[in-house]
Amino acid sequence: MAEMREPTLYGDLDTSVPEIRLFALLPSPQPNAPVVGQLQIVPLQSPPPYESLSYAWGAPEFTEPIIVNEQTLFVTPNLDSALRALRHEEKLRLLWIDAICINQRSPQERGHQVTLMRTIYSQCERDLLWLGPNTHVEQTHYMNPSEDLLGEGMQLMRGIADKDISVLGVMGHKWTAYKRNRIERFLRILKRQQSEKDVPDAELAAKIKQREAELSGAANDSAWLLSYDEQTALERVLTFPTVWNRLWVMQELSLAPKIQLVGGRYTLDWDIISGFLGDTPYADAFHGTYSHNSVQPCVGRIFEIVQKIDHQRRIMKEVSAEHRESKLMDVLARFRDTESSDPRDKIFGLLGLVSGKVNIEISYELTTHQVFASVTAAIINESGNLDIICQRPWTSNTGFVSFTDGQESSTGQDKLPSWAADFSTGGQIHLFAQRSIFQAGRSSCKVPCHMMNGSVLQTKGTVLGPIGPILQQDSVGPPQQGADSTWIPLEWLKLYLGCDVLSSSESDHSYVTGEPAFTAFWRTLVVDCVAYPMTRLTKNQVEEEDSAIRARWLQKLTEPSGPETKPSHDDEPFISPGIHAMWRRITSDWVFSITTNGLYVLIMPPAKEGDIIACLDGGKVPVVLRPLEDTSGGEEKRYQFISVAYVHGLMDFGTEDSTILREKLGLEDQGFWLV
């Protein structure tokens, strides 16, 4: 990442003022003339008017020479292309550019300047977002669109935002044709069904009448369908350029007072895009054709990235007016899929978007793992709970895998603690995104965190029980998909409980909550929820589903099975579509097991027999912990965090209603050291 520079190019900045450098790009009427400029040191509190530049560094190949303060400085090809396009013919242009204005060879200066980023971008007149083209490499329609193709996409975006009838007319006709074809297809099916009936069917006749009414009104529907070429034109501007994946750009664009997209000689103001996105339901009425020829709204696809940025820009305006907070975990999660060459920048590159004081040291002398552990602790302190551990959207196959970043060895002492979030990963929240559904632990934990040696976290909670034998296969993992994989629930029932529980509700087949064992079993498989949106099952839903699936599962036991058996939509283990959807979400990642004290659980890799399940103070869902051999001689037991878990009947364990169950199982609080 460091550039080769002459040591005299950068003088020291006064950090007490504080000071920044600005790059004065000198004019030239000749596009091929050398890029020449001067660095100026100015106080950040009262700088001259300047613009900032957001761009993608690209590969760390510093091959293009520019002249700065009469010295040669090598920059990346993409930056060279941007400077040539932005250079005026007759007047200088004052810019702040990270690769030029910061001494990248000085970790101390980089760390200090990062703390100023929020002010640097907030005070610029506007931020110039360089989309390309990179004239030094081959131009394609995708990652590096040509100048004219970028201009074509910008012009289309401008026409859509302005509601230009010459642009919308054809799109409207295409939508009407699509909708008419779709309605006519359904009508043909309904009329064929009607013709096959021996007696008139009132329900079918009503559906036909409804479809015919929809057909007559199809032309009045205010919606638009983009052609493939139109979709691609917008994607060349709003999706394909690599700058949209650069993490630093997310902060820069979220803070700048104004933004201008630049594609060679073509430009597009951000306000045009923002105005379109804010004009609902107009924006939601634009559709495109995607995989499997499905027609879906464009906003969630073509505009996905710019929507996130625009949302953060609105938040920052409200933060400035002191009407809203911008929390650290929310910011990190919103932009978790963006990229940075240094994993530590997954944090440092977004801190400018966080409101209030955050106790995080910005230092490139810290290792990646030290940064990630301290940030996880800071989020716990900010929130007063363990959401960052129990519900984090940064997930790997194991909760404690370490990685190297060129500074530390994965086999050395400096590893990422198992409880700390690995912010370098994308991932997703497997189950518990809706944070108010469960309250397995007490609502809050003690803050500030009690940490030892910067890596061992002290917590409190309750051990629910050790995981018993996992009977499905040798190790935890998703179910083996086979000819009859739909009926994995029945196979698990045979392994753990036996089929007698299907036809019996006697006390000898009851669960610890007092409900029938079969009822507790299937409720465990769907985490006691219905989807979507994900909500807890009601008493009526449980009663209706229970009787229906008992009958279906008993019938399945008497049916022949084998490779020749063809699955059908009517041959599913669950009746309710919402409950079935929940099971389908669970089955790809989770397996059933029973703790040694009889609790029904769902667990994920790499949980195994002998791991314990616990409810921690501040954790909304139970967690799987692995006891470690204690070599410290201390009183507190040490554990490795593995994953989250579902434990039937104890997902509201943190409420006062759990007292009876706590006493019944003989559960007591204890301390944990997470390493």
From TrEMBL:
Residues 50-252 form the Heterokaryon incompatibility domain. This is Heterokaryon incompatibility domain-containing protein. It comes from Bionectria ochroleuca.
